[in-house]
Amino acid sequence: MNEMSLVESRLGKLEQDNRHLKIALGVLLLLLVGMPLVGMTTSQQIPDVISAHEFHVVDGSGASRARMLIDRISYFDEDGTLRATSASDGIGYNDVNGTGRTWIDEYGIGYYGENGTLRFRMNSGGIVAADDDGIFRTRMSASGFAYYDENGGVIWSTAQDGSRD
To answer: Which sequence spans correspond to the domains of the chain?
Structure first.
């Protein structure tokens, strides 16, 4: 073989290798671009069961707005303050400051003042109302009505038939 045919042979081999390299790179590029597109067209699998200790619902800014735990569901306002709870032991509502204001449970319905003290309770035993310090001042029940002083002493009461106790 002369020198010219040797160069032509090597040049041919180099061009063939170059074509193979271009084809391989083209295929690789198509795979890299095509795989995400294939993933977008496949249907999402919906699991039969989702297991977790807690579930959180978050708003657009990522703040938790609702949480579901094993024994309660809690709801939060846009500032992250707890506003309502539905729990295994009752249902409650909090004011804008997060202070519990109402609670409904097996003992009845309770209303709490701004300082968190029980102000009013209604249940099967009757209705009681308390002052700002949480001291019961009035009671209405099947046996009558009573009004108490700050030490719990009876100031006035009625029997069921309307006569004084």
So the answer is: 1-39, 51-106, 113-165
